[in-house]
């Protein structure tokens, strides 16, 4: 998925994460919903590409039961 005005290309040697929302946010605590929104996920099965950094991994660790993560290596 390409976001408005943002490139999904990484710098040389930089890893990226493919994050997919696989569980519904209905009935989840407000903080879980805010973390998912902060990752850029809106609807079920939506996918975003984010750079591999500690801040993003911290967000993922808050909601591992709601998302799937795949590390994309530069070819």
Describe the 3D structure.
The protein is built from two helices and three strands, in the order βαβαβ. With about 80 residues, the chain is α+β, with helices and mostly antiparallel strands. The protein has a single domain (about 15-70), classed as Ribosomal protein L30/L7 (Ribosomal Protein L30, Chain: A, 2-Layer Sandwich). The protein has a three-stranded antiparallel sheet, with no helix packed on it.
Uncertain residue segments: 1-6
The CATH homologous superfamily is named Ribosomal protein L30/L7
Distance between the termini: 19 Å
Q: Could you name the CATH class?
A: Alpha Beta
What is the overall silhouette?
A: elongated
* Strand content range: 15-25%
Give the CATH architecture: 2-Layer Sandwich
- Number of continuous helical runs: 2
Overall structural domain count: 1
Helical content class: 25-40%
Class derived from helix and strand content: alpha+beta
Strand order of the largest sheet: 2-1-3
Instruction: Tell me the number of strands.
Output: 3
């Amino acid at each position: 998925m390409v976001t408005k005005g943002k490139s999904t290309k990484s710098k040389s040697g930089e890893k990226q994460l493919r994050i997919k929302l696989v569980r519904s946010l209905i009935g989840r605590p407000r903080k879980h919903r805010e973390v998912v929104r902060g990752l850029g996920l809106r609807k079920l099965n939506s996918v975003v590409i984010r750079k591999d950094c500690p801040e993003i991994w911290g967000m993922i660790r808050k909601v591992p039961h709601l998302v799937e993560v795949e590390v994309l290596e530069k070819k």
